[in-house]
Amino acid sequence: MSVGLLAVVDDILTAALKASAKTAGVVIDDAAVTPQYVQGITPARELPVVWKIALGSLVNKFVIIIPIALLLTAFAPWVLPFLLIIGGGFLCYEGAEKVMEWFGAHHETEEDEPRDEKKLVFGAIRTDLILSTEIMLIALTSLDPDFGLGMTLAALAVIGLGMTALVYGAVALLVKIDDVGLRLMKSPSRRVRRTGARVVASMPAVFRVISVVGTVAMLWVGGHLVITNLAETFWHGPYDVLHAITGLVEAAGPVVVWIVDTAVSAVFGLIAGLLIVGVVTGVKRLLPSSRKDIAPHAARSSE
Q1: pTM exceeds 0.70, yes or no
Q2: Residue among 211, 226, 284 nearest 91 (CA)
Q3: I want to staple 200 with a disulfide (CB 3.0 to 4.6 A). Which of 62, 137, 169, 181 is the partner?
């Protein structure tokens, strides 16, 4: 009995490890995107905020993604590509907004209302929902189709817990590096104090780099999701262009192919995101103007 149970556990862990390897790219993106949501809060609240986001990520995976993915895979697999197109489009939208902010385009709501902890956590969990969906769907499609429901669910649970611990453990470590530097600065050793000072001085640049990497990751993952799933539904055009471009550099090796694929996906994601931003901005401008038009009429009628 115990030997059989150990064999089952070993099969689950082996399958989970193999499936997790195929999600490595998205996991790196998730780890790169998340730290930018912790910026702008006091150091004492950094770890609690990371913990809240990690709990939200677990809820995303175990309450939303895994049950819905298993149900749709069993009864309506054709819906999944459309959901991923929507999720990818949202990532493109967020990434394009970040790029616009780099060039001085700020939204009125962001200028009038300072970022608060609840909004930071909500935004991070919302983005995590999309990234976690891709992670879990890639893992699900990588598992042996002959696995029973119980084995599949167990493997996905292992992957969900492992990926969440990996991503948010790395994020927690990253956001507290400056505290480590401050402690080193109190050391009696002059060399250690200098090292601590360098760590603290480098953190603003580190977070700027992380912000850029996170934005590029949003555009890359979002663009790749849209391109891939459009090809699986009703439009092969972007995928054919991507395939043709990567085919030109195929002889240079898989690393170059990956870099080109990533760059093209990110550019496509930026273009798609800017289009979505334009549509959303246009709708937002129409709504307030309609309210302003209604107000004078209402005042006149009351007179």
Answers
A1: yes
A2: 226
A3: 181
